[in-house]
Amino acid sequence: ERQAVTALVVDHDVYFLDLACDRLMVFHHPAEAPKEGAGRGPFPMRTGMNALLREIGITFRRDADTLRPRINQEGSVLDREQRASGEYYYEPAA
């Protein structure tokens, strides 16, 4: 951020992406055509993560002790609240 450098980072580790990125692209391929796909974005991190997590059907919270991203248990109170509000990605750390 301080040096205004752009990099393309491809990773599956949400914690790493949370630390390293301020924008992201979302790639999708339909199950019926796994060799085809499309990319969308770049989006601000929150917008992109909400789109990705909505698509794969999971919600994230920030662990209170470690501040690391954690997957909510499906059907938990927090999972249901986040789905109802459309916020699949946790609030940024204060």
Explain what the structure shows.
By secondary structure, the protein is an alpha+beta fold. The chain has one domain (14-85). It is 30% helix and 20% strand. It has three helices and four strands, in the order αββαββα. The protein has a two-stranded antiparallel sheet. It has a two-stranded antiparallel ribbon with strand order 3-4. A hairpin with a 6-residue loop joins β3 and β4 (69-71).
Content of β-strand? 15-25%
- Which structural class do you get from the secondary structure elements? alpha+beta
Helical residue percent?
25-40%
| Radius of gyration, taken over Cα atoms and rounded to an integer in Å | 14 Å
How would a textbook summarize the main sheet? Answer: 2 strands, antiparallel
Number of strands: 4
Average residue-wise pLDDT:
88
- Strands side by side in the biggest sheet: 1-2
Into how many domains do the coordinates divide? Answer: 1
> Strand-and-helix sequence, N→C?
HEEHEEH
The separation of the N and C termini measures 19 Å
Unreliable stretches: none
Which descriptor suits the 3D outline? globular
Query: Count of helical segments?
Result: 3
Protein name: ATPase RIL
Organism: mine drainage metagenome
